[in-house]
Structures are given as structure tokens and as C-alpha cells.
Design a protein that fits this description.
It is a single chain. The chain is mainly beta. The protein folds into two domains: 60 residues; 468 residues, Porin. The protein is built from four helices and 23 strands. Helix 1 runs antiparallel to helix 2. The radius of gyration is 34 Å and the shape is elongated. The two termini are 51 Å apart.
Length: 539
């Protein structure tokens, strides 16, 4: 613009000089000069007007670029759930509306720990956990309770208590978010130190083993959502939506690493495809890693096939079992928000198969296959973001592994055929946010496994049985288990920049009743248990 003004000034000055230096100019010439000057002034005014319009257009473009540049949303390792509490279970918080295919909420400030590499935002998270647990009997576990093998009162372990302190439930996580073309991409990795410890881990060094908990990639494009990696199973109930983020799941408030009796779950490798019909309805199907499971000392194989079947089924000692096909899990969820209440309802299915190969009754190998299934109905209601009720049910033929392995998937008939075991479980829970820093919760869970046994005609000793829950079966073949738990979570101190300090407590009572009890033996095994954890959570 300065250049144009200068040019006009030079032209104007030159015209004036020429006009003044002309001694032969007439009145007509003077009139022509005046017309030219008028035209120059009009041209200059028009150019200034065009430049002003261009400047306005440039400013509009700058504003559009500023509004379309993605702003990093706040990402806390411990995200608020449906309730207002910032609870102690780590997670990657996902956009609630995005999980349901709706509009995303207004972006907030990034986490104090977030950093960017290129267009991707990296957010580390986790917590430091000083955990203490007391149990009334010696289960020989550390921070995760083996519900199915609580010792009876007629054993030495049933007369010994245990107390343990450990930092091994401390957790590290990393969330990465980016946008590729029209797709929103999220990657998440989470680990703790609750892996396979050495036998002498508590003697001196306490060198707990790092382990993989979660490792997944989530891609959203329009109404479609794709997930792959190691995630919580779709049989694990959601609190909201259908996504994989831990904050969107119902895994209770328990401090116990093995959660609670009755909750169906696993963390397994899988791939999912989901479609968000609208803001309220989502549906999809998951292909999850299977495992032919027969429990820990719960089933008895036919005498003739015992050595052959051992490598074919997992008794919590065989990671390399043969599997016919992945478990297929469809899921549909409904979410609504009438008034100040959030309602969530979901229906989940399960298709699973088991297969064996035996030789002995005939000179040829014989293969046998059984296909079963099951499902869940889960529901929750959260009122005013302060008080929530949660319930879930699960039943199956061949899905006992998903009930924390408290029931076998299958047994084998003395003729080699596979027979599935019926099992069911469920929980009923509440969560109450008494104040911004205080939350109390309670959960009651139960698991039931139906007996399935046969007279073993391959056994040289008459009157012997094979299967699950038979007469003279091991007392680890549980018929029913119960666990009520209560929680108190108190935030002692918190700062948006520096994280928070919480006191997390849990008190539980567990009982188990096997199918067979020897004459004079106790009918049930009981356990009282308490956790007290001091937890520092990263912001």
C-alpha cells in the first residue's frame, strides 16, 4: 500500500511540475490537468478501498485457521467417571460424546504433563501406590486375591493370618492423540508391576516384575469406531458408551487387583468394530483371544485320556492350548440423560468353542467339538452425578473363564466328547459422592457353577467319576462364591498442576462352598480382608 501511495505521489508531483513549467498552457490545458488529478484521486481511493477489503479477508482467514487448529483436551491418568469423583483407577479419559458418536465437548486445557511431537499430543500418567492388605487366612496371594482357593478352617493355612505391604500396584501409562485426515486417533499403553515375581521377591530386593495391562489403538471416523490391541473384554460392563477407556467401564472401586467375585472381565488381545447409530445407541462386534480353561484343580479328566488332555486345556498352567476359533462377542449399548439422571443399558453376547483330540477307545484319533455361548445384561443409573446404582448379570455354557476363572469352561466325557459347563455370576453396586473429596461405595457379587460329571468307565477302579463337581471331587470345585465389599475413598490433597493424594480403603468378606465336602469337613471356607492404600496420582 505504501508503494502505491508513493507511486501516486510521484505521478501527481510530476503532473504539477509539468503544468507549472508549461508557458504556453491555455485554460483548456488547466482543465485537463484538473480532470487528471481528479481521476488519480478517485483511483487512489478505489485502491485504498480494495486494500481494506483484502485486509479484512486476510483477518477472517486467520481466525478460521485459529478455530480449526485442534486444541489438546485435558487428559488425566485418573479421569472422573460418570460421578464427579476423581477416583483411583487409572484410565485414559475419552470424550463421552465422542464415545457415543455425538458432538465433542468444548476443549479444555492440556494436562500439565502433556507435550507435543509434531501434531501428536503425548500425556504420561499413573500413580504411586503404597498398598497394605490384611487377610484372616493365609491365601498366599499378594495384592490380588485368589477367591477360588480360600483355605478351609481344617487346614494349617486356615489358622494363619497374613499382612503384606507392597508398591507393586503402582502404575505407569502413556496416551497419544492425533488427527489423521478425518480420523481421530488415540493410542494407549498401561503397565504395573504385578507380573510374575521371583519366589524370593520379598526376601530383600522386592524386585517386582513389570507387566503389560493395556495396549490399544482407537480410530474414530464419522460414526465408525475401530479398536485393536489388548483391552478390557467387551464382557466387562461399561458405565457409558461402548469405548475401551477404563473411565468408561464399571470395574468397581475395589483396591483388590482381582476386583470382585461376580464381575465378568478379562484383558485380552482383540479387534473391534463399532457403529454409533446416534448419540444414544451404539453396537458392534469383537473378536477376542480364546483359551480352553478347566480351572485350577477343579476338573478330573477320564483316566484313559488324562495324559493326552493335559496339554489341550489350561488349568492356569498352560498358555499354549489349542483353540478352534476366537471368541466372538457382539455388544449393543443405550445411553440416555433424562433430567439430571444418566441411564446406561447394554446387551452382550458370547460365542465360544472347545475342541479335543483323543485316541484309545479306537485305534484312530477322534476329535470332538462343542460350541456354546452366553451373554450379559448390564444397567446403571446415576442421579445428579452424585449417586449411582449399577447391576450386571452374566451366564454361559463354556464361559467360566470370564468369571475370573471361578468355573471351568468344559469337561471331557469318558468317550472323549467335550461337554460344556454352565456358569453364571453378577454384581449389584452403589457409589455415593458425599462431598467433592469423599466417596463411599459398595458391591455384592456372586458366582455359581453347575456340576457336570460322569461315571468314568475307563478307570480300573470302580465307582470313579470324571468331570466337575462329582462325588469325591476336590474341594476346589466350587459350587457358589459370595463377596460383599465396601469402599471409602478420601482425597486428602489435590492440585490441578501437581496431582492428588488419596486414601483408598476396602473391606471384604468372601465365602466359597464346594460341590463335595468330606464327612466332618467344613462346608464353607471364609475370609475377612481389608486394604488400606496411600495413593499419589499424577495430574
Amino acid at each position: 500500500m505504501r508503494f502505491l501511495k508513493s507511486l501516486c505521489f510521484i505521478v501527481l508531483t510530476s503532473a504539477l511540475v509539468l503544468g507549472q513549467s508549461s508557458t504556453s498552457a491555455t485554460s483548456t490545458d488547466n482543465s485537463s490537468v484538473a480532470d487528471e488529478l481528479k481521476k488519480l484521486r478517485e483511483a487512489l481511493a478505489e485502491q485504498q478501498k480494495q486494500l481494506a477489503q483484502q485486509q479484512q479477508e486476510i483477518e477472517k482467514l486467520r481466525q478460521q485457521v485459529a478455530t480449526t487448529t485442534p486444541v489438546a483436551a485435558k487428559s488425566s491418568d485418573v479421569a472422573p467417571r460418570v460421578l464427579d469423583a476423581t477416583l483411583h483407577t487409572t484410565t485414559t479419559p475419552a470424550s463421552r460424546a465422542a464415545q457415543q458418536g455425538g458432538e465433542q465437548p468444548e476443549a479444555s486445557k492440556p494436562s500439565p504433563l502433556s507435550f507435543r511431537i509434531g501434531g501428536a499430543e503425548f500425556t504420561p500418567g499413573g500413580f504411586v501406590d503404597f498398598e497394605n492388605v490384611f487377610r484372616s487366612t493365609n491365601t498366599t496371594n499378594v495384592i490380588g486375591t485368589n477367591f477360588g482357593q480360600i483355605p478351609f478352617s481344617n487346614t494349617v493355612q486356615g489358622h494363619l493370618t497374613e499382612f503384606r505391604s507392597s508398591a507393586q500396584f503402582s502404575r505407569l501409562s502413556m496416551k497419544v492423540t492425533d488427527k489423521f485426515k478425518s480420523m481421530d486417533v488415540t493410542g494407549y499403553a498401561e503397565m504395573d508391576f504385578n507380573g510374575n515375581d521371583a519366589a524370593n521377591v520379598f526376601v530383600t530386593a522386592n524386585g517386582h516384575t513389570n507387566r503389560l495391562r493395556l495396549y490399544w489403538l482407537d480410530v474414530k471416523k464419522g460414526n465408525w469406531q475401530f479398536d485393536a490391541g489388548q483391552m478390557w473384554s467387551w464382557l466387562t460392563p461399561n458405565r457409558i458408551g461402548i469405548g475401551p477407556a477404563t473411565a468408561d467401564l464399571f470395574v468397581t472401586q475395589n483396591e483388590d487387583a482381582n476386583i470382585n467375585v461376580g464381575l465378568p472381565y478379562s484383558r485380552a488381545s482383540q479387534i473391534r468394530v463399532a457403529y454409533h447409530v446416534n448419540d444414544n445407541v451404539a453396537l458392534g462386534v469383537a473378536i477376542e483371544n480364546p483359551q480352553q480353561y478347566v480351572g485350577i484343580g477343579e476338573t478330573v479328566f477320564p483316566f484313559l485320556f488324562n495324559a493326552q488332555l493335559g496339554p489341550q486345556f489350561d488349568a492356569a498352567n498352560n498358555a499354549g492350548t489349542p483353540n478352534l476359533h476366537p471368541d466372538i462377542i457382539p455388544k449393543i449399548t443405550f445411553d440416555g440423560n433424562p433430567g439430571n439422571t444418566h441411564l446406561h443399558l447394554e446387551f452382550v453376547g458370547l460365542i465360544t468353542s472347545k475342541k479335543d483330540a483323543v485316541i484309545g477307545l479306537t485305534p484312530n484319533f477322534v476329535t470332538n467339538t462343542a460350541t456354546g455361548g452366553g451373554g450379559s445384561i448390564n444397567a446403571s443409573a446415576v442421579f445428579n452425578k452424585k449417586f449411582g446404582l449399577f447391576g450386571n448379570t452374566f451366564w454361559s455354557d463354556g464361559g467360566g473363564r470370564y468369571l475370573f476363572g471361578l468355573a471351568p469352561d468344559a469337561v471331557v466325557h469318558p468317550d472323549g466328547k467335550v461337554s460344556l459347563v454352565h456358569s453364571m455370576g453378577g454384581t449389584a453396586s452403589f457409589e455415593w459422592q458425599l462431598s467433592p473429596n469423599t466417596l463411599i461405595a459398595g458391591v455384592y457379587g456372586v458366582v455359581y457353577a453347575q456340576r457336570n460329571f460322569f461315571l468314568d468307565f475307563t478307570n480300573p477302579v470302580p465307582g470313579r467319576f470324571a468331570g466337575f463337581g462329582a462325588p469325591n471331587s476336590p474341594n476346589t470345585a466350587n459350587r457358589i462364591l459370595h463377596e460383599p465389599s465396601v469402599n471409602w475413598i478420601q482425597t486428602l490433597w489435590g492440585n490441578a498442576q501437581y496431582g492428588k493424594l488419596q486414601l483408598v480403603t476396602q473391606a471384604s468378606y468372601i465365602s466359597r462352598a464346594p460341590w463335595f465336602v468330606a464327612l466332618g469337613a467344613p462346608k464353607n471356607a471364609h475370609l475377612g480382608m481389608g486394604y488400606v492404600s496411600l495413593k499419589y496420582i499424577l495430574p
